[in-house]
């Protein structure tokens, strides 16, 4: 079967061909300002190769969902699924060899980055027997691999940038061929852009972007201004899958349409009635929004006065919240707080929230339950959170063996205590060894690879021993205690 597809034509005659087999090994970068025809180019590439290779499209604007009707792509709406579900979907789409469009339209930037990272992570971590070739198209790649920190959280940026780096740097051996498109080369992380060997550079106007495009194509700086003169839908191509010298290419027509096509110029007609009556008609009183009168705020007191007032308010609040004489014992208070933590852990998203966020939620719930503003300090909360994440029940938590497990877990780093208690609970209850996915969730991630590394670290610390039974299932034993799980499948 031929691996050549037609992307369009070279001005002056002749088809512009792209070697799909070579592209799968060398990756592609598409650049052009808004309106230059990037989405049209990506759509042409996807349509021409849809019957030849499996495809995965990260679509932040919902432009490519129309591919589903003609070519059978599965459309996954990110707003309807959790981060963990998308990680699993990334694995399963490779196992079942289904082409997928991940529609992230309607999500904020932080969610788009975390959801895309989870989906790409699932594709990347699939077992070796499912490493079939996949064309992975990421539109607006500067959103997922930004060159500098923005308004999104550092956690989301690190996850997304790491997933994009894996795709472009390490994806080839796993069958993942990255095709990334961006409006601004200057906003795209250099380590991601540098891994592409094929380029399609469209119209751009900013000097810094023209300069970077010329450098990538091996053109002289004085030739960089030619990118301003490119027509819409025309790109300069270079790379082993395209051509050996920079060559202008006019992209051909497409069969499907984008849902978010730009506005079309239509004849302008004046309104039928006088504009004054339409625009300035009196508004009924009941429809008029209330406009509260702005009263200028008094000038703030000086700093010493503010500090004194704050100290008095804190003292008064402490007196109000001082525990009254009550028959409730400390044991009963701790039982109520454990119940609050268990309720929080029932939310599937709680496993992926940082401990400080969960701590604030816990304090609010304790105040509602009448347990005071400072029910637990942060250190004691982290220990209680680790116990809650382990899934231990109330009866088991009172047994001497569990107290020994908590003492053992206290020697671990704070972020690993929940994992240690989770494994200890499975061993004490003689349950099957937890899967990598279950361990990853307790740790607060969706990465099975991270779970395997955690187990390796615990084994290096002489805390546990891992072995396989006759059927290849995993058995975990705690050194020095004799606690041992039943055989369990690592893949769940």
Automatic annotation (TrEMBL):
Keyword field contains Manganese: no
Single annotated GO MF: ATP binding
SUPFAM superfamilies found in the cross-reference section: P-loop containing nucleoside triphosphate hydrolases
InterPro entries, alphabetized: AAA+_ATPase, ATPase_Atu1862_pred, HerA-like, HerA_central, P-loop_NTPase
Record domain AAA+ ATPase: where: 24-214
Keyword ATP-binding tagged: yes
Domain of life: Bacteria
Annotated spans, Disordered: 310-333
Keywords, ordered alphabetically: ATP-binding, Nucleotide-binding
Designated name of the protein: ATP-binding protein
